[in-house]
Each structure stands twice: as C-alpha cells, then as structure tokens.
C-alpha cells in the first residue's frame, strides 16, 4: 500500500509528505520534556489525528481510480441452435468491448478526486493545529494553576506568621474576637483553595495525557516560568498569513474549485459515451466446396448510449450549480468569521501584554509595598488588623490577575497560531 501512496506524492505536484506523520514511533518523554516534545509526541500518537491522516491517504488513492477507464467487457456466446450459413455453421462467439467516456469526463473526475485529496489534506492540517492548540491551552492552564498554588501557599504562610501575633493581641485585648475569627476563616479559605487547585490540576493532567494518547496518570512537569511572548506582526499581516496558510481557508477554497468542476461534469452528461468492441465467431466447415468455407467472421462494433432524458440532466446541472453557490457562500461566511476571530484574538493578546506591563511595573509593586508596611506595623503593634487583611486579600487578587494575564498572553498567541496556520509561539518560551 505504501508504495502506491508515495508514487502519488511524487507525481502530483502540490502534495508533500507531512512532518511527524501519524503512525511513526513517538519520541520518549521524561520529566525534562518541553511543550515542543509533547506536541511532537501527540503529532504521531493521537488517534483522532491518525484517523484524519488515513482519510487523507484514502483520498489520495482515489485519484488514480477516478481517472481510470472502466473495465473492458469480455463476452462469450454459445449457439445452442447453430446458425447455418453458406460458409458453415456458427458454433461460438467471443467478444471484447471497452467503454470510453466522452472527452473530458475522465479528466474532470480525476480533478474532482484531486480536489477531494486537497480538502482531506487541509482537514488533516486543521485537526493537527486544533490538537496543538488544545495541548498548548491545557499546558498553560497547568502553568497558571501552578502559579495559583504558589501564590496561595505564600499567602497562607503570611497568615500563619500573623496568626501567633493576632492570638497574642487578642489575649491582651488589643484585637477583637471578630478579627481573629476572620483570620481563621481566610486561612481555611486559602487551604480550601489550594485543595481545589490541586484537584483541578489532576483533572487537567488527565486531559493533557488523553490528548497525547498515553497513560492518563503519567506525571507532567510544567515549568515555573515562561517567557512573555512577542509578536512582530500587525493585524493586517496576520490576516494575510491566515488567507495564505490557514487550512480552513484552504479547505473551502478547494471545495469551491471542486464544486465548479462538478458543474462542468454535470453538463457533460448531455454527451454520450462510446463503446468500441470486437467480436469473433467460430465457424465450422459447411457442405460443398466454397472458397470461404469455414472462415471465421471478425466483427467491429461501435455503440453509443443515447442521453435523451434531458430533464434528469438539467436537474443534475442545477444541483451542481446550487452546491457551487452554497460553497461560495460558505467561503464568505468562514472568511468573515475567521477575520473577526483573528481580530478578537489579536486584541486579547495585545491587551494581556498591556496588563502584564501594568501589573508588573506599577500595580503589584505598590500593593506588595503596602502589604509589607502594614505587616511590619502590625507586628510592631500600631497597624489596624482589618486593613492588613484587606491589603493581603488585595495583593493575592492582584497576583492572580497578573498570572492570569501572563497565561492568557500565551493562550492568545496559541490561538493566533491556530487561526493563521503558522506557528507564532516561541519554542524557548515553552
């Protein structure tokens, strides 16, 4: 089977063997594996992607079949009651015939099958990009959960450090019972949050491993730091990339070409097919002395089918034209929606970078400074405990919002990669 597929690749321009084709041996993963390693593993091991790949290969195999001639017909007839002729009785008749579709029909069918193969190829690429996007999405959500856990543990440690001072001040009467209870409540809330994040992390790891089609309980080591992404392209440039490289755009473009060819093929139904044949009749010697005695006749035949059901052919042409119009409208719909999605992803990406800069250089340093001052003054006995707890809550909230913006920047870049059909992510930032 493989030699046939490879020969198709060689003789059909526009096709190329895909990198990381499914079915190959996946790479070995370990605790030092990067996101790029996991993506490579999924590319050759994900069953849904592998199914799409084999559908593509099946479409490639149909091209040769679509352009081939129908099987020739071999016939044999035995005269039960022999036909007597002056040259002798006819005993057996042998025939061979070949149907030849009207000029252009075979070429159109082959080109339609070729377009089907391009559609299948683009669908495979789209599934691959969607798979990679899902993997990146889960990966960076795992990164965010890790950051959330670290932030929760740090906040919990702060509360535990304050707890002994708060209890002492409560015993001396300088802290209300309500404030001490609030401290305990916040401490329990943080513990509960940490447990919830741990459980969520386990669920995401199972989902991540299922995308890779490996043991769902395999451990995954997510980095504690990723780089802030860069995008040196304008929205207009990304739109150009999408129109040229997006497999979804490629799919509808090939479907439109296929529908146009189907219209031409439907119009060819008004023309007849030709059948050429050759018959040989076995004849025995007859009575008498005739010069042609026992000579076997050889007969050439030409047959045409009669395309007289014009209503049927007109309906077929109309059907093909309507499908062509539907595909063109679908192309406009996808184009408009993808451009809108790209615009939103681009805005979300740039907005997340703006938030990162704002939190990193202004909001978070100020919030941490306030918390540090209030902690020091509380320990010294002069700060309001309610203010300290409010400042701690604010610092925790802002830290999580910062990590959310940091994670979202990677997610939106991954989405831009999916929409444009290009890998815009930075490998070193995985």
Write out key terms for the chains shown.
single chain; 430 residues; alpha+beta; Outer membrane efflux proteins (OEP); 2 domains; 4-stranded antiparallel sheet; 9 helices; 66% helix; 10% strand; disordered N terminus
Task: Give an account of the 3D structure.
By secondary structure, the chain is α+β, with helices and mostly antiparallel strands. The protein has helices spanning 2-11, 35-45, 47-66, 105-171, 177-212, 235-245, 247-267, 310-379, 385-420, and strands at 73-85, 88-100, 274-283, 298-304. The protein has two domains: 69-100 and 276-306; 110-271 and 310-429, Up-down Bundle (Outer membrane efflux proteins (OEP)). The protein is built from nine helices and four strands, in the order αααββααααββαα. Helix 4 packs antiparallel against helix 5 (177-212), helix 6 (235-245) crosses helix 8 (310-379) and helix 8 runs antiparallel to helix 9 (385-420).
In short:
Helices cover 66% and strands 10% of the residues.
Flag low-confidence runs: 1-17
Under CATH at level 1, the class of the largest domain stands as: Mainly Alpha
N-end to C-end Cα span: 38 Å
Portion in beta strands: 5-15%
Determine the CATH topology of the largest domain. Outer membrane efflux proteins (OEP)
Under CATH, the homologous superfamily of the largest domain reads Outer membrane efflux proteins (OEP)
Main-sheet strand order equals: 1-2-3-4
Number of strands: 4
Helix content bin:
55-70%
Mean pLDDT: 86
Please identify, by name, the CATH architecture of the largest domain.
Up-down Bundle
Structural class estimated from helices and strands: alpha+beta
Number of helical regions: 9
Rounded to an integer in angstroms, the radius of gyration calculated over CA atoms is: 37 Å
Order of SSEs:
HHHEEHHHHEEHH
Largest sheet: 4 strands, antiparallel
Number of domains: 2
Which word captures the global form? Answer: elongated
